[in-house]
Design goal:
alpha/beta; Rossmann fold; 10 helices; binds NADPH dihydro-nicotinamide-adenine-dinucleotide phosphate; binds ketopantoate; ApbA; Ketopantoate_reductase; EC 1.1.1.169
């Protein structure tokens, strides 16, 4: 049994806590101290999630052996900076988010014995008060992000995630992250702006825009050394639209609830890399501007 710390009390954090608490001791690191009872709910099950909570201030330096960070893309860097001192000398850090974040500087600052991993997951859930509703179990991929992790990722996966439905390891996680990014770019902004469920994007009127978006992702990925086939990205996007046909994407829900979106880590990431490489990405640029405009309007 391992001691596992999970940052936050968000939807993915609680889904992971529920699963991992079957074999491990779980501590959630929360912003404020409070005695909450977290619950896990599916169509047929409701149960309490066995876990304790601590604030960051309550954690001694170098005390965490395994730290999972399932936060929004725009929160990752701040959280990494705040939590690095609490990670033990041989600690394992596991990032899990949608979109792309340049965490290379933060990972380079880790000690040579500290390992970093990525958990890319399409499990789905949402939170109402202290209950997480588990609504879907898509694929999960786990892989190393730095050299110490390259030696240990199979063992860490076996210990933590091998009993997850539809979970597997990959030595090279970057192509997986690019594919997830492509799917999110095909689905999230358009579904949010049009306020439609994911499956509605299969209508012919969206096809040209989706093809152009995927073409831009493929070109920018290639400029970073990641080779992806355009046909694979398009097929993947339409497969996920079909698998999640009745779901509203996270960005759709974020905009509807006046919450900040992860657009900067999706279309924004593509635009930033494209600018450095002199690649034109007008379709990603347009969605980036439109989603940010919609969010600014909603906040007024
Ligand atoms: N929900 C889903 O079905 C899926 C989500 N994802 C991705 O996983 C990531 C996490 O998503 P999700 O769980 O939905 O997000 P949530 O916003 O529900 O969870 C993030 C949690 O982290 C907390 N947090 C952030 N910064 C800190 C901090 N400095 N100290 C303490 N707590 C902090 C947040 O608190 P606060 O709210 O106060 O900021 C929140 O409780 C996202 O990138 C998302 O796109 C991927 C697949 C499916
Ligand atoms: C896969 C998809 C598009 C499911 O809705 C998702 O990851 C999201 O909504 O952020």
């Amino acid at each position: 049994m391992a001691n596992i710390h999970i940052l936050g009390e968000g939807a993915i954090g609680l889904l992971l806590a529920q699963h991992l608490s079957q074999s491990h001791q779980i501590t959630l690191i929360t912003r404020n101290k409070r005695a909450a009872t977290y619950r896990y709910q599916t169509a047929s099950i409701q149960q309490t999630i066995p876990c304790s909570t601590k604030t960051l201030a309550e954690l001694p330096a170098s005390s965490i052996d395994t730290l999972i960070i399932p936060v929004k893309a725009y929160q990752v860097i701040e959280v990494l900076r705040a939590l690095r001192p609490a990670l033990s000398k041989n600690g394992a850090l596991i990032l899990s988010h949608n979109g792309m974040v340049d965490w290379s500087g933060e990972l380079a600052a880790l000690e040579k014995t500290q390992s970093a991993y990525f958990l890319s997951t399409s499990i789905a859930g949402y939170k109402v008060a202290d209950t997480v509703h588990h609504t879907g179990q898509g694929a999960t991929w786990f892989g190393p992000l730095n050299s110490p992790a390259e030696c240990h990722y199979q063992r860490v996966f076996s210990q933590l995630f091998s009993t997850f439905e539809n979970a597997q390891t990959t030595f090279d996680i970057m192509p997986t992250l690019w594919k997830k990014l492509a799917v999110n770019i095909a689905i999230n902004p358009l579904s949010a702006l049009e306020q439609v469920a994911n499956g509605q994007l299969r209508q012919p009127k969206y096809a040209a825009q989706i093809l152009n978006l995927m073409n831009e992702v493929q070109l920018v990925a290639a400029s970073t050394g990641v080779t992806l086939a355009l046909s694979e990205l398009v097929t993947l996007a339409y497969t996920v639209m079909a698998q999640t046909a009745n779901n509203r994407s996270s960005m759709n829900q974020d905009l509807a609830n006046n919450r900040r979106t992860e657009i900067d880590a999706m279309c924004g990431y593509i635009c930033e890399l494209a600018a450095k490489q002199n690649i034109d990405v007008p379709f990603n640029q347009q969605l980036l501007e439109e989603v940010n405009k919609r969010w600014q309007l909603a906040r007024q």
